Amino acid sequence: xxxxxxxxxxxxxxxxxxxxxxxxxxxxxxxxxxxxxxxxxxxxxxxxxxxxxxxxxxxxxxxxxxxxxxxxxxxxxxxxxxxxxxxxxxxxxxxxxxxxxxxxxxxxxxxxxxxxxxxxxxxxxxxxxxxxxxxxxxxxxxxxxxxxxxxxxxxxxxxxxxxxxxxxxxxxxxxxxxxxxxxxxxxxxxxxxxxxxxxxxxxxxxxxxxxxxxxxxxxxxxxxxxxxxxxxxxxxxxxxxxxxxxxxxxxxxxxxxxxxxxxxxxxxxxxxxxxxxxxxxxxxxxxxxxxxxxxxxxxxxxxxxxxxxxxxxxxxxxxxxxxxxxxxxxxxxxxxxxxxxxxxxxxxxxxxxxxxxxxxxxxxxxxxxxxxxxxxxxxxxxxxxxxxxxxxxxxxxxxxxxxxxxxxxxxxxxxxxxxxxxxxxxxxxxxxxxxxxxxxxxxxxxxxxxxxxxxxxxxxxxxxxxxxxxxxxxxxxxxxxxxxxxxxxxxxxxxx
Length: 496
Known about the structure:
The chain has 2 domains: 5-391, 3-Layer(aba) Sandwich (Rossmann fold); 396-492, ANL, C-terminal domain (GMP Synthetase, Chain A, domain 3), CATH 3.30.300. 31% of the residues lie in helices and 25% in strands. It is α/β, with parallel strands linked by helices. It is globular and about 75 Å long. Helix 1 (25-33) crosses helix 2 (49-65), helix 2 (49-65) crosses helix 3 and helix 10 packs across helix 11 (278-288).
């Protein structure tokens, strides 16, 4: 499918119909009518739909009693438990503006997040109190107002502080997960495989929750990974599906080659984060079988494209792509002047996309333009409609599916008295998909302390941003333009 020149015209942008019901009403209905069907497994504990519905009702009653309702900010800092899932659904059910506090943030980043989107915090201790609340007997009907912000999904924080992608109740209500009649072909292929879907990390994760709701809609069960880690958690829980990063996928493939374990229950691995090369995809399909789904999306947009195992095994072109977009998703490829192009920067429109960055009008204006989301990724579409990623229009490294921006790392390194200049590049990494590598020009008469530099970055920006290597260089190579040539640094490789 070649680029449609008219798709770049905001005046001709798609107008999606208003949703018939407000999120999370389909989930409330599924739980209320599910009876003894298991929906959440945590070790030996099995929670049925009826029990989960009762949990949601009690937490919702407690939230309402505390004054939480439509438009109220609410932060969730919770693990992966049946109660945490109930709290997530209940927070949406009462119409709150839900902000998830994910693991791994520095104290400063966490303070920034909680201060930027004020509201009461629900942690494990507070959740235990809410669960003990009695059912108030009120009908549990989704109370969110379509134009209100339903959730703030925070980015990795590699720019120093996380950015919050604000998604409205109207957008969440337009999502495909709880509606089988909306499932794109790739999702319709994936859904039946989610019989025992592993949940780990945080239910505030956009991907974890999205595929969790898909699993429940398809009749599956959410399974808490205790403890997480591939391949053990697949065999331990007889899991049929999971989300996996590029680095973890490579490690799993290598582990299966060296010491195979029983993965016969596995039917789907949804790969997210860094782009995956065709050779790595082919190897994964060969070793693991036809279970790998390669997806592409962003926090701002949700899923943009996906390619199924069957497509990749049948078509080498598909293997080299990130898949095709659903019919409801618009893609526009533009040159540096915003004109339609065969290759260029990718702009996207999805029904469930965010509308802004929370409390950041400047960044909002740069990324959310006339109903489109600027991905800052370079791409092209082939004649069969498959999307091929060509690189990035932004200077980032994707570490374990987290965007790590080079600029803030360079500024932290250059602030050290032993460093005159600092440059950061990314390289493929078997463990993390990509890894951060830094080059520093020493200040006159100084010898940079690599361990101290790494510690400075970790303290300021978090572990994901910490360079794997830091190499002193006499001077940075220059491009013909006279600007630093990071591509030349990338090609030299680390030497220390």
